[in-house]
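In the previous chapter we treated chains in isolation. Here, by contrast, the input contains two separate entities that must be folded as one system, with a combined length of 884 residues.
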Amino acid sequence: MKDLIKQGLRLGSIFGVVIIFLILFGLTSTLSDILGEFVNLESRTRTGNPGGLMILFALLSLWAGSSASASDRSNWKSALVSGVSVSLIIGLFVAAFILLVGFLDSADVEMRDYLAQLDHLSVQFLLYGRSLIAGVLITFGIFLIFGILGALLAYWYEAKQAGEVIQKQVLVLKEKALDSKLAKQYKENPRSKWIGYGLLGLVVFITPQFLGKYWNYAMGTVGIYVLMGLGLNIVVGLAGLLDLGYVAFFAIGAYTAGLLTAPAPLPLQIGFWPVLIFSIVMAAFAGILLGIPVLRMRGDYLAIVTLGFGEIIRVLIRSDMLAPYVGGPQGIRDIAGPSLFGIAFSGKAYLYLIIIAILLIILFTNYLQNSKVGRAWMAMREDETVAQAMGINTLYYKLMAFATGAAFAGLGGALFAARNQYTGPADHTLMVSINVLSLLIVGGMGSIPGVIVGAFVLKGLPEILRELDLYRLLVFGGLLVFMMIIRPEGIWPAPRRRMELHEGELDVLPPEESLVGKEG
Amino acid sequence: MSETKPKKTTGRVNSFKIIQAIISVLFLAFLSWRLYNVISSGVYGPDTWVRFAISGLIIGSVYAVIAIGYTLVYGILFMINFAHGELMMIGAFSGYFVFEALKSIPVAATGMSFLDSYQIISVVLAFIVGMFMAALSGYFLEKIAYRPLRGAPRLIPLISAIGASIFLQNAAQVTFGPQRRTYTNPDALLRSQGWRIPIGGEEVILTYTGVLTFVLSILLLIGLYTLVMRTRYGRSMRAVAENKQTAALMGINVDRIISNTFIISGALGGAAGVMWGIHNGIIYHFVGFIPGIKAFTAAVLGGIGNIPGAMVGGLLLGIVESLGPAALGIDFQLKDVIAFSILVLILIFRPSGIVGEVLTEEKV
């Protein structure tokens, strides 16, 4: 009993603190708006939907109550005890916080100067537009009632074993689906793989026709990130060299394209297509140049040096010293877009251009991956010393990985600059490197479909969740941590990497259990 | 785990070393030629050089304090705590709120606010709260973002740390707002005030805030060094850094040591944040990022995992960063380029840092 209460108090305080932070972040207003719209409640204040807020609090306390009773659901009494303890604590935390905020607000303290999300209106919203005491009591009541309800519901669910029944049904359905005729046919037919690819290709080529201008642009950004992801995938995913300054090559590609095609600051104005090739070559060259000195560095140092390199490039293109040559903080304007046979690529056509580039790069990567080079990279990633002993010239292959990855980024940069017809220092911050690395991680390191999934999740999803725009990066950061904890191999991992991460302690396992012979 | 690296005695590596040596000699020659030109041209008088050196020492001492946080964590977990700069930001904001709160409390006896009436207490309070909040954040950071990942491949905690860093930055942005804030220092610590030292006919101002920052940094560094090298607790910390399993067998609670390491490193970051606020005056949600990276540079510069090394690295980085652009006669905007170039050069030519790292080859 004592343990139950203790655990309830602990969980309750965690939930309480998290909810207080949600309020401080202003996420409560956004979430309550979404929930309120969902159940068609009329919004009464500017900052949020009070009805939606009640639903949000109720849902949160249901969650807290049910998870508090998870430890002991043997009888309804223990469920009740844990439910009461957890909901009391959450209620106390949140109600006390709202009371404090409401009191400060009624004393005319301008909290907004210090806490950006708390002004008079949002405090009124937290009190559901009612008086201080009434609002606080309602909040407390919601947490108490729904917390206990959550605990009891969880107990009831467990008692009826409703969960197991549903789980069994899902399993049966899954097995049925896998055993069905269609699935068997698909598995057994060797051509089915190509049919699948064909269908996918068709979808990819038709979709842009149905997208509006905005979505075309957004998908173009996703595509460019796919390109960069595929490049970094070679450096980090295949060769195992952690590069945090990947944006440098992107910048070199973009600036090469910009400088050679724009009228200012250098009056060159060469056409797009030769310049595209030239930017790729320049980026690859920069990759080799950076590669030579850092080749024999180990993981973390390599990360920091590449990060430093990325920052150096950014500071240099921003600086006044180089402004006459590269445009300084204003960047380069009027970069020429591509045109073929007199027709300029823009909008949909440009998206197709990006898609074609991606397909070419995917084919190329696929070829590399399954060739001698790819095997050498993977061997290096697994164990550099052993790879060297097997006669792999690690210096050469590392340089090659750097150059290939950089070339892809250069291509991405050139396409990016030509699409926006502008590029400047703001496009080439450290965040780009981190985004690309993250999409790799989220999608699945070393896997080509993983890169595409990752790019859609990291660059496409935020476009869909426009309402959460302010919280995009906040959620993104939290998601990265969460992802590393629950699924470090990514959404669509390469088979080898999944095994590595789920192997547990390498030292403990006998040699037969290691990677050899496991790959299907 | 006792893998031995093969001796690299192939012709390729040797030619590599020769090329490196030639490049470094040429580079040094170029640097000295440039330095000679600038000094002999007399663009900067002696007072300017002193001013640069002073500001470099002060900023370097802040870097040193942050760098120690990195070094402590790296020494024990072999991971770059990418979110360490954010702990500094949290400390800076906490100190800011303490000053703001104290400023709004009137004291009847003096007719001024609490901040101006009891200045020493106010400053001490700001440091205590800043260090406490940053230490608390460090504790939870380790517990939430790093502890579940112990034993995972090294890239995984690094990504988690990057995620935590982005999360904390943006949490601060949405909570406190994106605007830049000015630290309200107590009267005695106004940023323009200080001792005036005549040098070469000109006056150089040695600001009180700068002196406070420098002295406090040195005190913190000495205190930490004593803690790690001279106490029983420090010995167990070093034991965990050396080998976790053996340390656990010796009866050391490894988890607690790691937690406490994060608390200590967080407190140092928080102190650095308050110092940054008091001395530089401007804080915002992104304030910890660049100093964080620079401090990591400093830690690598001195030899990571090595506490005196981090101090030396921090001070050196600060001085080079503020003297460098002037000495080479280039734009001051490019001081970050100098800092990062030094990092790259050090890592290429002397990867174990100036003082030398404490890590053995086996661990990395």
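Residues 211-466+476-513 of chain A form a domain with the ABC transporter involved in vitamin B12 uptake, BtuC fold (CATH 1.10.3470). Chain A is about 70% helix and 0% strand. Compare these points with the single-chain example from earlier in the chapter.
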